[in-house]
Each structure stands twice: as C-alpha cells, then as structure tokens.
Amino acid sequence: MTDLAPDLDQGSKFTPKPDLPPPPNTTGVSGWLRYNLFNGVFNSVLTILSIIAILFLVKAFYEWAFVNAIWEASSRDECRISSTEIGTCWAGVNVWFTRFIYGRYADAEIWRINLAFIIFIIWMIPLWLPKVTSKIFIGLSAVLIYPFLAGYMFSGGERGWFMEVMIAFSLTCFLFVVIHALLCLMTGLGLYRWIVKISGFSKKNERQHKYPVIVVTLLSVVAVAFLIDDITFKYMSNNLWGGLFLTLVISGIAIASALPAGIILALGRRSKMAVIRVLCVAFIELFRSVPLITILFMATTMFPLFLPGGMVINKLASAIVAVCLFAAAYMAEVVRGGLQAIPKGQYEAAEAVGLTYWQATVLIVMPQALKFMIPNIVGNFMGLLKDTTLVSIIGLYDLLGMINAVSHDPKWIGLHHEPLFTAAVLFFIGCFAMSKYSQHLERSLGAGSHR
Amino acid sequence: MSLEAEKHTDQLKSAASDEVAIAMSKVNKWFGDFHVLKDIDLSVFKGERIVICGPSGSGKSTLIRCINRLEEHQNGDIIVNGTTLDSNLKNIHAIRSDVGMVFQSFNLFPHLTVLENCTLAPIWVKNFTKSEAEATAMEYLERVKIPEQAAKYPGQLSGGQQQRVAIARSLCMNPQVMLFDEPTSALDPEMISEVLDVMFELAETGMTMLCVTHEMGFAKRVADRVIFMDFGEIVEQNTPEEFFENPKLDRTKLFLSQILSH
Fold it and tell me: What is the mean pLDDT of residues B107-112?
C-alpha cells in the first residue's frame, strides 16, 4: 500500500510530451519542392522537361516582344525596314494607344474621362478601409448616384434642372463620402455622428438625430448647385465614345444593373403569385436561350423598325439595354442558386419574429445568399466585361472595335498581333482585379459567420 | 357543427377577451392528402404552461406552428390574444410579434452577431432605436446568462448557448406567448440542462408557454397541463400528476412506458 502511494501521486500529474521538430525535408521550400516537383524519378524528369519548355517559350516571347521590337516608327512599312528579325511593331500600338483607351473622344476633353474615373476610384476606396463605417451607403451611392455625375462628365452639353439637381447631389455625396472616410480614419467617428454632435442634437432622442443631417445635406446640395451653375462642358456625342472607356461604360452599367435586376427576377421566379412567376420564368428563359449577338442585332436594327416613323433610338443606348437584359437573365439564375442554399429555418425564424417578406429578404436571406454567390457573380461579371466586345460587331468602337480600326488605318494596315496582345493585357488586368476583389470580399464577409 | 362544439366555441369567444391567450376550435390541417390535425379544440389560458408530447408524426409540431402561421390551417378558428388568425397579413404580423418561437435547430441568423440577432426584430418590427434595442437585448442576454457572448457570431457558440440566444431573441420582442418546438432535441446531453434552466426561470415569470418536448422531468416540474397527441388528435390531457400517475387510455400508457422505461 505504501509502495503504491508515490506511484499514484505521479500518475495524477500529467505532463504532455515535448513537441519535436518535424522530419527534415518535409517543410519549407525544400520540402515543398520535394513533394510537388521531384516526387519520384518520372516526376523529376517531367519537371525538368517542363522547365526547359517554359524557358524556351519565355525566351522566344522575350525576343519577339522586346529585343527585336520597334518602338518608334511612323508606319508599319518603316517597322519592317528597320528590323531584320521578326519582332513586334509596338510603334503602331504606341501611336494608337490613346485611341485604344478613349476612342475618338476629343484630345482636349480626355481629362473629363480621367477625372470621372478618378472620382469613382476615390469613391470606392473607403470600401476597402476596415475603419470606415456605413459601407452600404457608400457602395449604394457609388452605384446609384455616381452615374449622373459620370454621365454628364462624359457627354457634357446643356443640362436641365433635373440633371442640375442630380449632379449637385452626386457631387455632395462624393464630398460626404470623402469627408466621412477621413473623419472615420482620424477620429473614429463618422460624418453622421459629427453632424449630430456639432448641431447639439446628441442629447436629444435618437429618432431626431436625422434632422440636422437632412438639413446639412440639403444646404450642401443647394450650395454645390450654385457653385457648378456656370460650369458647362463641351458636348461630346456618344458616337465619339470608344475604346476601353466605352467598354467600361457598357459593362459598368450592365454590371451595376444586372445584380438588382437579377435579384428581382430570381425572387419573382420563386414567388407564390403565378402571374409574376410565369413572367419571370419567360423572361429568363427567353434571354438565356438567345445568343447575345442576336439580342444586340434585334435591339439596334430590328427594334427601330417597329417604332413610329421619325423616332430615333440611340445605338449606344439600345446596345446597353440589350446587354443589361441579357446580363440580368443570367444573374437571375445565379441568385436563385444562392437562394436555394439558404435553409428553410432561416425564413421561418425571420417570419416568427414578425419580419415582413421584404424585411426578411433584405435583412436575413440576401446577405447570406449573396455570400454564397460571390464566386459565381464575379465570374458572371468577368464574362460580361468580355462579352461587351461583341458590340464592335454592331458598329460601336469599343476596345476591340478600335483594335480592328488600327489594321484598317492605311499607315498600319494589317497590324493585328500587337494591338490584340495589348487588348488581352488590358482585359487580363480588369478581370484579374475583379477576381482578386471577389476573393477579398469572400474572406471579409466569411469572417466569423461560420465555425 | 355539433351542439357541444358550438358550446365550446361560445365559451372561447366569451373568454377570449381576458383569460384566454390562445383559442383553437375545430382546427383541421392537411399536408396534401395527409390529415395532420383533426378537429383540434384547445384553449390556453394566460400564464398557463402546457407541455405537448406524443410520438413523431403525431402533429404536435404542426399544432404549435399553426399558432404563428408558419403552417396554414385549412379550417377551424385560431384566436391569439383576441386576434383571429386568417389570411390577413396585418393580423399575421400582429400575432407573430406577440408570439415568440424557439426552434429545434435554433435558426439563429449566422451572418449577424448575437447582439444583432436580438436587436434586429425590435428595430425593424417594433421601431425601437438601436440603443433602446441593445439595452433590452443585453437585459435578456443576461437573463439567459450569456451577456459576455454578445459580440460573437452564432457559429462560435455551443448548441446550448445558441439555443439560449434563440430564447433571448424571442424574448426581446416582449411576447405574450412563447412556443417551444422541441428546444432540447438537437442538443448534446450535457447542454440540455442549461437550456431547461432558462426555461424554468421563464416559467417562473408567469409567461404563457406551449412546449413540445420529451423532457418529462420538465413537464412534471413546470407544466400546468400535459397534452398527449397521436394521429393528429389530442388523445388525453391532464395535470402532470394525473397524467403520469393515472393515464386513462391504453395508448397513453404505452407511450409513457416507452419513454419512461429508461
């Protein structure tokens, strides 16, 4: 008995074994190489052969694109004469590059496009900053209010009172977003709280807090409207728009409208009301079953035939509408897929606490469903960005249209490879950025909501 | 309608104004061809605690889900706190904001924090301001003993904690009646008691409760009335003492012997 006692004492104290280092060559760079590239004789041979093939391709491309390239020339013939080896003629791209980006927009007015895009980027930056609050308002204002400002900056000309108000409102929103973001970064309090605080309403009931904010907003809109009253931009007809700029305008509008339209169509398709359901199904199936190019031709050539005489529809506008309808039909099915991933219990819980159908949809179902849908939505958006190149076929000079135009220019006749390569790079940058952003979104929305 | 049923309906209508919280008369429901609820007559008085038990498929969940119209009954009357449950959306929403419900699978909103889960409905349905709603929510989270979890997401909590949050979420709407649909059936055994403790305390505050459960200990301790259902009918109802000591029907005896045998 006495012998057992010390043993028991030892047994009751549990000391875990110390952590040992892992076996050599299983971690770090050497471990990775061993596991992935030199995993056996056959795989090692394949790895070496692949590396040689890649080196050859890279070298050939490097010589074509850089070593034997001609950067300065005034025509394609000059390119050919000055180079003995086969190389690129970047000179053509160089000369035409501004046209690739802006189409036939007047050189003196190009700053308007640049400024509008810079404003958009500044508008969106706060969405990336974790400290900034009210991101929903910032995002919504960028999608709903900014187009008025951008539309005027792109096209210019005289403006009616409605555009005047909307542009002033848009500029005010932009200012508010910038000030709000800066305040959030520096003081940790947003613009809304600051206005409430300064106006002295913070002691009053929370329900009254919105009044000073509304007053400040209205006053700002009026002030901005007076400030911009004298500023008018030169009118730039939209058949001068082109290049990457036009591609971004068409796909931007399509992207911004596709998601809300898709959500409404998807909800309609799941509706209990038979008429709404049938209409939505018919719309979705019709537009999904027809090639985009057919829809574009219908919109720009056939649809005007049905209109009463004298009525002219802008070609760009009808192309945009066509792309939007097409995108909405596809988006509707993506959204429906996401909605089906939400368990029935979520709807029941939302109903049981007394939320209405729309409250439950907006507050409970959509935020969860959208998170599931992000990869598909962004995939759709990337497809849309690339699909808009089809508008070059109906005679709009988008990026691809401008690239075709180079090879029709007498000086650069037949120059295809280099401009197409440029377009590929530009599209890659756009699509890769979208893809990266979607991954960022998935990570930030996924945080904490699942175990 | 038989004379007796008419008499029952009259009784309910006269009582509907004050003591009766829920009055169901001749409620029938079908799922397709399947007759789930058959002529259910039930009145629940204010402050009464009722436990409903019965074999699976007997219609007990459907019965309480009809009370806040998660299921629609096809005929018969359901009157909750004087409001008749019909297809009028206004009535449905009025009843739902007065009747709390706790589900077997918790059904918390996974994209919102615990606190946001609790404040969402008061803000959007009852027009509370954010700070009012948060104060109420913290009060109830303290009552279910998890105020320290307020900033976490439901996925980070254990099953028992999630169910307690679900109870707090319902209580934040300040309901007159609480419905529990097998609240402990999805829980690990060691978490059942923490949820039952919260339900005991809730019962002590005088809340009207309808609870579908197989926790007979809970039934014995808090129930005013135990209802046994089978094949969509209320087979037997009695005080817990009588129900467990002297069940009248053989069907009830068989059921009790099955669930109490171990």
Answer: 93
